[in-house]
From TrEMBL:
It comes from Chitinophaga horti. Pfam families: Glyco_hydro_39. The lineage of its organism: Bacteria, Pseudomonadati, Bacteroidota, Chitinophagia, Chitinophagales. Residues 32-528 form the Glycosyl hydrolases family 39 N-terminal catalytic domain. It comes from the Bacteria. Keywords: Glycosidase, Hydrolase, Signal. InterPro entries: GH, GH39_cat, Glyco_hydro_39, Glycosyl_Hydrolase_39. This is Beta-xylosidase.
């Protein structure tokens, strides 16, 4: 054998040994997930079908209406929308963390002047799309503020986050006038949209009154709530009203505020009626994560967000007469400031790509677990992300679309929209359950797990490969064994969000990251922003009620397996 042949043989032997080694490693590292569709855990409520934003005037702008149309089509159930500043005095022009409707002013003699033009424009946009408002009673009109000047803040990215103070955040100078405003708003809504429609809405008072969004005391907030709730119920006795929308309840300050509010609901003296307690139809609080840069790598902190939820649920569950009430997590996000862009806050660079989408899949799945652990009634969790009109492409806001082009995270919500029925049992030798993520976040191995649902003629399994550290590593082999499918052939659609699927951001980068894309490029990006399949639909043979789907799932990737028969 000559030297050349010897080298070739050695190379082949080495290649064979390497292949065997890689195969063995793949076999060893394969994550096995078992789904038992015959074991269910109650209905899979569409808790994800709620969205919100600071700037209400974006609602009826070009890209705002386009995105709301897409959001409205995500689900069979109506999607709820929550927006700030619905009673703020101003000209209706949007700015970052600002909006106005001019619903309330006063004439020269101090008499109320109501103008519902802009509020109607906002709510009409929702109703036309089959959506429903979480109607936020706030913030304070200038004519009713105890400290009207300066009234408007002028916040921009880079400013201190809480430098949003102004006359809009102060208590009313006349609680009866404030109550009359609320009464007239509800009454007008019933006249415009009908009693049955308004009965399906949620009304709430204010936002984050435990921090700088409220310049009054806890007691003044509670007094204002009594007046607002009384006004809502006088206008429409069957309307649903709640609060207090505090920040994360793992904070002692927020927890104390929430407990004082709930104590008043149960045993307090009502400021309007003089009787015990106040009407309450839903309980609201917020939950946020805490991303940071660690050695120039983005590190999320899902555990922080889950601990907020855990603390809030525990507080609600401690009130026997209130435990059954619907809970809405009024803002439920990886961190706090949607308008804090990536170019100013580098730790927010997760937002454009697949880290945001995989975080969303994994965190919503754990909300179902926390509900079961506490036995509470979670109606929904609001994703505080919408769009920012006329901003640079993919600037890195916490939004669902950039200049009318959908981000990967929106496709995870499209996946959720395909899931229905009852939650099904998921098991396996998995690294994380909700307790471990809550207590220590996702620090060592990746969180590769699944959420499954079974309906009459379909089953769905969402699988994610999430890690708090945004390091790109090789894809992981995952085997998903599904038991409980009908015998015979079922149709499988395999949807995917990763760098190559359902990802307009990566497509935008591939064409040079243009800030002025051509119409043809925009059309291509719009297509890339839609939910895409990994391959074609295929008929899968089910033997003895079981089939196994094998996949390579990239880090921060999400798959949805949809079986229909």
């Amino acid at each position: 054998m000559n030297q050349m042949n010897t080298l070739r043989l050695g190379a082949l032997l080495l290649l064979g040994a390497t292949t065997q080694s890689n195969n063995a490693l793949a076999q060893q590292d394969t994550v096995a997930i078992q789904v038992d569709l015959s074991t269910t855990k109650g209905p899979m409520r569409p808790i994800w079908a709620m969205f919100g934003y600071d700037e209400p005037n974006y609602t009826y702008m070009k890209d705002g209406k386009k995105l709301l149309t897409e959001i409205s089509k995500l689900s069979k159930v109506p999607v709820y929308v929550r927006a700030h500043s619905l009673l703020v005095t101003g000209d209706g022009k949007a700015a970052l963390k600002w909006g106005s409707t001019n619903a309330y002013t006063e004439d020269a003699k101090g008499n109320p002047v109501y103008d519902w033009t802009i509020i109607d424009k906002i709510f009409d946009t929702y109703i036309e799309r089959g959506m429903k408002p979480i109607a936020q009673i706030g913030f304070m009109p200038k004519a009713l503020s105890t400290k009207p000047e300066p009234y408007q803040h002028n916040w921009k990215p880079g400013d201190k986050y809480f430098s949003i103070e102004g006359g809009w955040a102060y208590p009313p100078n006349d609680y009866k006038k404030f109550a009359a405003l609320v009464y007239e708003w509800v009454k007008h809504s019933v006249a415009r949209y009908g009693k049955k429609e308004v009965e399906s809405w949620y009304w709430e008072l204010w936002n984050e009154p435990d921090i700088d969004y409220w310049k009054g005391t806890v007691e003044e907030y509670i007094k204002m709530y009594d007046y607002a709730a009384d006004a809502v119920k006088r206008a429409l006795p069957t309307a649903k009203i709640g609060g207090p929308e505090v920040t994360g309840p793992q904070s002692p300050r927020a927890a104390k505020f929430l407990r004082k509010f709930l104590d008043h609901i149960v045993n307090g003296t009502n400021a309007v009626t003089g009787k015990k307690g106040a009407p309450l139809d839903l309980i609201t609080f917020h939950a946020k994560g805490y991303p940071r840069l660690v050695d120039s790598v983005i590190r999320m902190n899902m555990g922080t967000q889950l601990r907020d939820i855990d603390s809030g649920f525990a507080i609600v569950a401690s009130y026997p007469t209130l435990k059954h009430l619907p809970i809405i997590i009024g803002e439920s996000d990886p961190e706090g400031c949607a308008a804090c862009s990536e170019d100013v806050y580098p730790s927010n660079a997760y937002r454009n790509g697949t880290m945001y989408s995989s975080y969303t899949a994994a965190s919503f799945a754990r909300k179902y677990d926390l509900v079961a652990a506490h036995g509470v009634n979670l109606a929904g969790a609001v994703t505080w992300a919408f769009e920012f009109e006329d901003q640079p492409w993919f600037r890195g806001f916490r939004d669902l679309a950039s200049n009318g082009v959908d981000k990967p995270v929106l496709n995870v919500f499209r996946m959720f929209g395909l899931m229905e029925g009852d939650l099904a049992k998921v098991s396996g030798q998995l690294e994380y359950d909700y307790r471990r993520v809550r207590d220590s976040s996702v620090r060592r191995k990746a969180d590769i797990n699944a959420l499954a649902a079974i309906a009459k003629n379909s089953a769905t399994v969402m699988v994610w490969n999430y890690h708090d550290d945004n390091k790109m590593v090789p894809a992981s082999p995952v085997n998903v064994a599904i038991r409980g499918l009908p015998a015979g052939a079922v149709l499988l659609h395999h949807y995917r969000v990763d760098a190559d699927h359902s990802n307009a951001y990566e497509a935008w980068k591939k064409i040079g990251s243009p800030q002025q894309p051509t119409p043809e490029q925009v059309t291509m990006l719009e297509r890339a922003g839609q939910l895409q399949m990994l391959g074609s639909p295929e008929w899968v043979h089910v033997a003895k009620g079981t089939t196994t789907v094998r996949m390579m799932l990239p880090r921060q990737g999400v798959s949805l397996l949809q079986f229909t028969w």
